[in-house]
# Entry
Amino acid sequence: MDEKKTDPSGYEPNFVMKDAAEPEAAENQPNMAENQPDMPEDPAKAAAPPGDQEDFASGAGYSSMLGENGVLEDVFVRTKDILTGCTCSRSCKNCLDNFYNQRNHDLFDRTLALQLFEYALEGKYPEDYSSDEQEAFLAPLKKLIEESRDTEPAEVINFEVIPSLRKRIRDEKRKLYLNPYNLSDWLPQAFIEYRAKIKQYE
# Structure
């Protein structure tokens, strides 16, 4: 039986000190086997991606359908029909919006989705905007420039509106490349970019 150890002050701790090298009793050791995950009986199932396991608890089983003849092609055709068959600016209940994805409605943009879709499947780059389309996109920025008293007229800088999927060129002299997002959601930032550009030539 272990004896309580005391220090010179006479204080007696209320616990028993043990030798650090003394192993704990077997009943106090954790059962490692209980903490191991169950191994699947079929090794092939363990290697398969979750989407390919038809008995996966939360899976709908659609992944196996995509492997059937013609199904994936039908999905692509239907996707393009949805993205091109509407006249809304970004998304609406007639194309992408529904009750189940309502939390993401502000993020949807069928035009940008179509550009990415065609580039991924066909290697097709989005076409340039016409002059009328560019003027329509630039109208809010030009109005903001005209209303700013301490800003030079917009004619000092040439503008070009490019599709959002394209990379903007930022170092070309006297020219500012913008996309539709720059001229709508990020209009204040586009105005700041414009002012920084004209200061280079003051």
The mean pLDDT is 76. The chain is about 35% helix and 5% strand. Helices lie at 32-35, 43-47, 62-66, 71-84, 110-122, 131-147, 187-199.
